[in-house]
Inverse folding.
């Protein structure tokens, strides 16, 4: 009698173990599906940049200031060599003054950093005291274009402008000059934090640029900034016909709460 009872207990234990195992598997499957659903809402790196290419830089700048409390736009000195709109991930480069150097490898790292980039990259260069020194020209621009770069932002000068315009490669720079950095500068690092026209830039931050200027979006805030910038764009673009219809910007601002 006791033996049959023991066997019955053992059977119950086995049955309970099977039930718990089944519950765990089902729960794990549900969790996996939930995680998959959540991850599907997160845009890929390429998709995120594609979204940023659709929003106006002014809206991105406003959204950044509201969310972070910081002004992350470059000054009026940073000008495009041709009208362009682009966005991409920052690939940072630093050049330091080294007047009269004869080292043939002094700028090799600068060139290698271009070859290490790819689609959706934006070449962001800080040239120490470099407003009258060309940080890049036609050859570098051709290499970037061939590798699918979105554009370049140079805190310094740019040259070979006619050729860069010919190939339609977008570059923002603080000046147009015929000079060279060879024998005057030395490569000081790539994919390092830099300051470009007064704005901190870290590798992988999003660079958003159009006719209004250049903005740097810290990657940690990129999705939140994008969502708010899209809302701002929608409101502003909706306001234009209302202003025309009512002939009143005051009424439109009151209606949409956006200026």
């Amino acid at each position: 009698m006791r033996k049959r009872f023991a066997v019955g207990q053992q059977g119950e234990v086995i049955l309970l173990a099977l039930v718990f195992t089944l519950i765990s598997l089902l729960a794990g499957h549900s969790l996996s599906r939930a995680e998959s659903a959540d991850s599907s809402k997160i845009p890929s790196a390429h998709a995120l940049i594609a979204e940023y290419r659709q929003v106006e830089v002014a809206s991105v700048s406003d959204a950044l200031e509201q969310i972070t409390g910081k002004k992350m736009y470059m000054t009026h000195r940073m000008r495009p060599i041709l009208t362009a709109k682009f966005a991409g991930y920052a690939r940072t480069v630093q050049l330091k003054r080294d007047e009269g150097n004869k080292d043939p490898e002094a700028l090799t790292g600068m060139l290698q950093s271009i070859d290490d980039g790819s689609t959706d990259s934006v070449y962001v260069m800080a040239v120490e005291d470099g407003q009258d020194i060309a940080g890049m020209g036609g050859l570098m621009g051709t290499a970037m274009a061939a590798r699918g770069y979105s554009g370049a932002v140079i805190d310094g000068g740019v040259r070979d402008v006619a050729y860069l315009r010919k190939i339609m490669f977008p570059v923002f720079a603080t000046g147009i000059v015929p000079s060279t950095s060879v024998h005057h500068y030395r490569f000081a690092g790539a994919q390092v934090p830099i300051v470009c026209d007064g704005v901190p830039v870290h590798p992988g931050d999003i660079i958003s640029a159009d006719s209004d200027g250049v903005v740097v979006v810290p990657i940690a805030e990129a999705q939140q900034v994008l969502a708010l910038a899209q809302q701002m764009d929608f409101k502003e673009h909706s306001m234009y016909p209302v202003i025309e219809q009512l002939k009143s910007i005051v009424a439109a601002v009151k209606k949409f709460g956006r200026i």
Summary: The chain has eight helices and eleven strands. Residues 229-254 form one domain.
